[in-house]
Design brief:
Protein name: Cytochrome P450
Main location: membrane
Pfam families: p450 (PF00067)
Shape: globular
Bound molecules: protoporphyrin IX containing FE
Keywords: Heme, Iron, Membrane, Metal-binding, Monooxygenase, Oxidoreductase, Transmembrane, Transmembrane helix
Order of helices and strands: HHHHHHHHHHHHHEEEEHHHEE
GO molecular function, one term: iron ion binding
Length: 438
């Protein structure tokens, strides 16, 4: 049990930040709005709420479930996108789904993914190299970084969800989901999401409800993916529609988050060539003559791991998460009534100078040299994948993809920021570069 989880306890719970974090959260958002000129909205709408005084503070600081759902979650497009899967389930249903799905992320399954993810990335980079060569080679080639990572992340999440036997059917389903994502971007009309331009039937979101044949073709659990796992005998109470919802959730939770991580990592490496050189040198040392790292190489890529962590700290794709009190509880000296929902502002915690020191705003992967729990003044200050029982189930997969993809890019290219790049981080469900990342 970690400090951010709420439980029925008479002991005071010490979170890694005090309630004073909220004004700091807001000044953080304002600071980014002013500095980058981006439309960086507080998660719950354009009028952020300020904590003033007790007992009003409880009302203001802790956003109630009703308010939260009214403002964001209940939007039909968001519900369609997220699916009624793990992210949105609770109680026994959540526990059953989580137990059934966990084996999908077993190390053996991740091992199988390493090669296919590496090959897909290598194929994409081959095309980029060909374009650069056609341009004369010397000046390089300008690409939108997010687009570079679309196919690889889609392949990884499709293989994880549908496994070997239903991969092609799964691909078709996820193409619909991509259209839905574009539709959402259009509907919200706030931000440009690289790679998601909606050209379909305006005003009508596509339906994502088809599932490849139940049972997925058999052949054993390894490499068969989430859809197959959920049809095992242990999953007797799971319906087809449960599985469809869970697939949607996987796509939503697993694809764009990873693209965003890869996009920000690439941007930061382009801004900090000295870290590019260090990561490249490490790759040469660890992988030797091999073009791409093997699964066994990945843990030895320490510098790359530090770079990925520092990116997740400064630009966490998921900017916040929510916890609801199961019972009346005391938190940071406040009595939190049962049912209250608490916003955990991941991004603001990650930028807090009180936790990370005076260089909190600086890109400094070296702070992770002794591991994530020793990088800040509080062992839980680093939480890009959340914390506790509801922590991200796809964390291992996301880090694997990130290391493989960045390794493939660094082995082949030097990265520079284009003169067309405008640094404007913004939030639309996740953290994006508002004008893309050329
Ligand atoms: C950089 C990539 C990713 C980031 C930053 C990220 C972040 C998160 C965060 C913050 C949560 C909420 C955790 C909490 O409230 O404590 C979460 C949950 C979740 N994530 Fe991820 N995620 C990533 C990749 C993935 C991938 C690749 C998958 C699946 C293929 C995935 C599937 C899920 C699911 C199913 C949940 C809900 C877990 C539950 O409630 O039991 N995520 N993620």
């Amino acid at each position: 049990m970690v400090s951010l989880m709420l439980a029925a306890s008479s002991k005071p719970i010490t979170p890694p930040f005090s309630h004073n974090i909220l004004p700091r959260v807001l000044s953080f958002y304002n600071h980014w709005n002013k500095t980058y000129g981006s439309t960086f909205l507080f998660w719950f709408g354009p009028t952020p709420r300020l904590a003033v005084a007790d007992p009003e503070l409880i009302r203001e600081i802790f956003i109630t479930k009703a308010e939260f759902f009214d403002r964001y979650e209940s939007h039909p497009i968001i519900r369609q996108l997220e699916g009624e899967g793990l992210v949105n389930l609770s109680g026994h249903q959540w526990a059953l789904h989580r137990k059934l799905i966990s084996p999908v992320f077993h190390i053996d399954n991740l091992k199988m993914l390493t090669a296919s993810v590496g090959e897909t990335m290598a194929g994409i980079l081959e095309k980029v190299a060909a374009t650069a060569a056609a341009n004369g080679g010397e000046g390089g080639v300008e690409v939108d970084v997010a687009e570079l990572y679309h196919s690889m992340t889609e392949e990884a999440v499709t293989r994880t969800t549908f496994g070997r036997s239903s991969f092609d059917d799964g691909k078709a389903v996820f193409q619909l989901q991509t259209k839905l994502m574009a539709f959402a971007a259009e509907a919200f009309n706030r931000v440009f999401i690289p790679g998601y331009s909606w050209t379909g039937n305006k005003g009508k979101a596509p339906e994502v409800g088809q599932l490849p044949e139940r049972g997925g073709g058999g052949g054993g659990g390894r490499g068969q993916g989430l859809a197959w796992q959920m049809t095992s005998p242990a999953a007797a109470r799971i319906t087809n529609s449960d599985i469809v919802e869970e697939c949607k959730t996987f796509f939503f939770a697993g694809k764009q988050t990873t693209i965003n991580l890869l996009t920000w990592t690439t941007v930061l490496l382009a801004m900090h060539p000295e870290w590019q050189d260090r990561a490249r040198e490490e790759l040469r040392r660890v992988c030797g003559a091999r073009d791409l790292p093997s699964m066994a190489d990945l843990p030895n890529l320490k510098t790359l791991g530090m770079i990925v962590n520092e990116t997740l700290r400064l630009y966490p794709p998921a900017v916040a998460t929510i916890r609801r009190a199961k019972a009346d509880v005391e938190l940071g000296g406040y009595c939190v009534p049962r049912g209250t929902e608490i916003l955990v502002p991941i991004i603001a915690v990650h930028h807090d100078a009180g936790l990370w020191g005076p260089d909190a705003e600086r890109f400094n992967p070296a702070r992770f040299a002794y591991g994530a729990s020793r990088a800040a003044r509080h062992p839980n200050a680093f939480m890009p994948f959340g914390l506790g029982e509801r922590t991200c189930i796809g964390r291992g997969l996301a880090v694997l993809e990130a290391k493989m993809a960045i390794a493939a890019v660094l082995r082949r290219f030097k990265i520079r920021v284009s003169s067309n790049y405008v640094h404007a981080p913004t939030v639309l469900m996740m953290l994006y570069p508002q004008y893309g990342a050329p």
